[in-house]
Amino acid sequence: MMTFRKISAMGRGDLIVAYLTEGEPDPLHDFRTEPGKVPDGDGSRLTSYYTGRDGRASWRPEMPAKVAAALGIDASKPPKNAELSKLFEASNAQTGEAWSDAQRKISAYDLTMAPHKSITLAAEFAPTAAEGAAIWHAIDKANDDTMGYVARELGYARRGHGGEDGAEKGDVAWVSFRHTTARPTVEAKDPASGQTYLIDSRAGGDPHAHIHNALFNVVVTEDGHVGSLDTKRLRSRVHEFGAYFQARLADNLRQLGIAQTYDANEQATVISAVPQDICDFFSKGRRQVVQAARDYAAKEGLDWEKISIERKQRILSMAGLASRHEKERDADEREVWKRQADELGWQTRSLLGSPIEDASAPALRHEQAYEFAARHLAKEFETSAVLDHDKLRMYAARGLIGAGIPGGVKDIDAVVSMIEQRGLTLHDEHVSLVSTLRNDRVRVTNSAQIRIEETLAREAARASRDRSASLSDEQIRTAIEASGGHYDDQHGQSQKAAIYALGRGGKLSMLTGVAGSGKTFLLKPLVAAWKADTTFAPEGREVIGLATAWRQADALAEAGIHDRWALAPFLMRLEKGDHHVTENTVLVIDEVGQIAPRQMLQLMELQRRTGCTINAEISQKGCTSG
After folding, report:
1. Half-sphere exposure (CA, 13 Å, Cβ side) for 267?
2. Is residue 592 exposed (0-12), middle (13-18) or buried (19+ Cβ within 10 Å)?
3. Which of 208, 525, 600, 624 could, after both became Cys, cross-link 479 (CB 3.0–4.6 A)?
4. Is 417 exposed, middle or buried (0-12, 13-18, 19+ CB in 10 A)?
């Protein structure tokens, strides 16, 4: 998986460094040159990751010289805390000067890669240090490959204010921090600056391999221009990057001969030999440390929100230690984990074997990934009319977790091309995909959806022209007077005009308005008028309230609607014959914009068959009632 956080340039760099390095001081020597021996011959690097990797920072591999010079870093030496502190304040690591004339609110983006818990446990409980190191190296290589992909996609320097003059390709830099533990973490606000920081406890964590990659908000172009990252698409593609990490990790583990499968959500690769109950046990978390820290502050008569950030750090550290069992107080964390595994009866063994080579031709791998992606996209289209094109890439990458991704990004491109050309099967119907550009983003719909929307538009036009069930002006006037509402001011006059427009409307009418503009207030006299209308039945008209969720539907009680339903159960009852709609029925739909076109078409087909009236409401930004 991959998550991301913004790092504020206005924050204190030393506190950000303390979190990412887990409070570790500068290394006395370069851990990348430590001696060691492991099966694949890369002993210096692999043993270092297994024997002492927590919190250690390392620069981007093959750091481009231009961006290194702009940031003031020497990529041949391990990062030092003082240098990192300046960088996280958007300053040169050596001089402390700003990276460029343009002020930055964001100094970096923390992109965090995390494998499934089974992979963490396979590394932590490996029978030999070499095997644990080899698994960690597989994680590390997948991380570096993914960050290279991120750099390729986001490494564009924005030109002009907010990028209004476009973007230019350039080089970027990041620093990686490898963590093995998930410790209780709290967001703590510094009362002096108003900035919020992450602070974690030094005790009470579970095994959890993850790598924080601080991608600095700086891009250096070929001509030496220093700009900021073009992060417009980061949020929409974060899941694709996470899937790419999982696919590369799966390939790396196959090279170690480790058998894998998908997780329950088909989003990550899982080591098959690690039992799920063991994964669940070591995923329990220790959040009581955070509450213990707050309780400690309260007992001391301190206001947690007002004490300094340094005091919060000290209290969290003490609370973390206090939360551990008495016999574990002086034990190494890994010793505690080993004892717990023994008590659970989990007998670890070597998972390494001969490389699991995929003999499939690229076309077969792509076919497998296409089938995976098409199946998941069909599920997405069941509830969404339009998808971001980036979701095609995300599902293609997830399909390649199982199929293999030796071709890297080219494999994703190939699978996406197959999806675009072939389409997919939706509700037992083959549909084509149609892409459009909206607000600088590529969006995708399908031919069935287009047909639904075209049919829906025709049905809506037909129903809106049918005024055979409209209320008379006298009926509306009587209901307004009986409601006791006040319509004297300008807003009241607008509301009154809207009531008349809806009451006189056809068998489909719609009311739009900003949230809080009084749409429910407008319904009260109309509901009363419909209930008093004996045109179709002597007992008056039946009014039913509908919404996508029960809570929304229940809110229609304020308008005097007593028969209320969530839409899906209502449609199901109609299908079973447990509910009947006639020409005498008025369906009042709250927030119709939340209803999928396929369901809305079902309602319009119901209207055609029965002659019922549909009155729909929708909240729209910038609209007024009427």
Report:
1. 13
2. buried
3. 525
4. middle
Dist CA 494 CA 522 (whole Å): 10
- Residue 531 pLDDT > 90: yes
Phi, psi for 203 (deg, rounded to 5): -145, 165
Q: What is the DSSP letter of 560?
A: T
Given a contact cutoff of 8 angstroms between Cβ atoms, the answer to whether 124 and 208 are in contact is no
Amino acid 186 reads V
DSSP 32: G
Taking the C-alpha atoms of residue 595 and residue 599, their distance in angstroms, rounded to an integer, is 7
Mean pLDDT of 272-280: 90
| CA dist., res. 437 & res. 232, Å (int) | 15
387-416: average pLDDT: 96
What's the Cα-to-Cα distance from 122 to each of 21, 338, 586, rounded to whole Å? 24, 12, 61
Q: What is the pLDDT of residue 44?
A: 42
- 53: tokens are 């990797």
pLDDT > 60? residue 300 = yes
- The β-bridge partners of 441 are 438
Residue 423 and residue 377 in contact, taking contact as beta carbons nearer than 8 Å:
no
The per-residue pLDDT for range 316-364, each reduced to its tens digit, is 665 554 554 444 555 677 888 888 888 888 888 899 888 887 667 899 9
Give the chain's end-to-end CA distance (angstroms, integer): 47
**Average model confidence (pLDDT) for the chain?**
85
Whole-number Å distance between alpha carbons of 211 and 595: 40
- The answer to whether the CB of 617 falls within 8 A of the CB of 593 is no
Contact in structure between 243 and 267 (CB atoms under 8 Å): yes
User: Which residues on neighbouring strands pair with residue 196, listed in sequence order?
Assistant: 189
Q: How far apart are CA 625 and CA 291, in angstroms?
A: 47
CA dihedral sign of residues 124, 129, 131, 132:
positive
Residues near 418 by beta carbon (within 8 Å), at least 6 away in sequence: 366, 367, 370
Res. 536: pLDDT tops 90:
yes
pTM score, whole prediction? 0.77
219/227 Cα distance (integer angstroms)? 5
- Which among 471, 378, 467, 469 is positioned nearest to 419, based on CA atoms? 378
Q: Using CA of residue 144, residue 147, residue 152, residue 153, what is the dihedral sign?
A: positive
Tell me, what amino acid is at 343?
E
Could you report the per-residue pLDDT of 157-204, keeping only the tens digit for each?
A: 877 665 566 678 999 999 999 998 876 565 666 676 677 766 655 555
Angle CA(340)–CA(320)–CA(179) in degrees, nearest 5? 70
Which residues 6+ apart lie within 8 Å of 103 measured at CB?
none
| Residue-by-residue DSSP string for 428-456 | TEEE-EEEEEETTEEEEEEHHHHHHHHHH
Q: Which tokens go with 569?
A: 């159960």
Instruction: Report the run of H or E that residue 8 belongs to, with start and end.
Output: strand 2-8
Cβ-based burial of 173 (10 A; exposed 0-12, middle 13-18, buried ≥19): buried
Write out pLDDT tens, residues 488-521.
788 788 888 989 999 999 999 988 865 555 567 7
Q: How many alpha carbons fall within 13 Å on the CB side of residue 543? A: 24
Q: What is the pLDDT of residue 40?
A: 43
Q: What is the DSSP letter of 91?
A: B
Nearest alpha-carbon partner for 267 in 248, 236, 239, 293: 239
